[in-house]
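Workshop exercise sheet. Pairs work together: one partner reads the sequence aloud, the other fills in the structure field after running the prediction. Swap roles for the next sheet.
Pair: D.N. / O.F.
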Amino acid sequence: MSAKQRIGFIGLGIMGQSMAGHLLAAGHQLNVFNRSKSKTDDLVAKGAKWFDTIGDLAAESDVIITMVGYPSDVEEVYFGAGKILDRAKNAYLIDMTTSSPSLAKRIAEEAEKRGCHGLDAPVSGGDVGARNAKLSIMVGGKQSDFDAVLPILKIMGSNVVLQGGPGAGQHTKMCNQIVIAGTIMGVSEGLGYAKSVGLNPETVMESIGGGAASGFQLLNLGARMIAGDFAPGFYVEHFLKDLGIALEEAQKVNLDLPALALAKKLYEGLVAEGCAKNGTQVLFTKYAR
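Structure field:
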């Protein structure tokens, strides 16, 4: 693979815009498509090329990256008539959406049949990680394909690891989301307790943020909770989707995950209350009303 590629990027949301921007800044030709065209305006102004259809973008890209919402969206952009798998030619197809491991395997198998290379590469780090190119990227696919796209992935992330064959990246992301689900409940409960007993949450953060309880969820989302900032770095509705996938995968191997089940129930309640478009830190409101 040459140093500069024609990279197609589909899905320019909160994280996708920053990720695609890093690729453009690195000198790659950036081809873009998004359901809401206006979200690509800044990138196009900087030199990205807009495509009216996914198929046309796929036909003109050496590497195609997807960062969409749900497994159903992933299935549509890859398997839909005239879309990625129908139009891509000897391209590397990298799905960075958090999706199902079985769908990742299906994409990789179909890609190989058509002379392409499929990898699943979900990410962790949220909007902050995307902006700072510090994402953790968990990859599933063939070693040779991973080696070929590693320079591109390193433009967007600081921790890029091949976890195994197709689907392994998605399974690893499920591990990540399971850990986050329990951790964010702990952060919400701890800060909710601080507020309820009359402590100053900010000084509490000074103490516990430097001890064994410290971590990304506490230091970043905990600070947003205290400030009453529930703007999305990662949407509740997307996190709830991830929790559902993780529970389904756990059930397939007869694994009981009670904390994950509770987190899913709590976030379902938040969606019912109209918080689907808030950030995951809005869980704090369940404990500090």
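Discussion prompt: The chain has two domains: 6-165, 171-286. What would you look at next?
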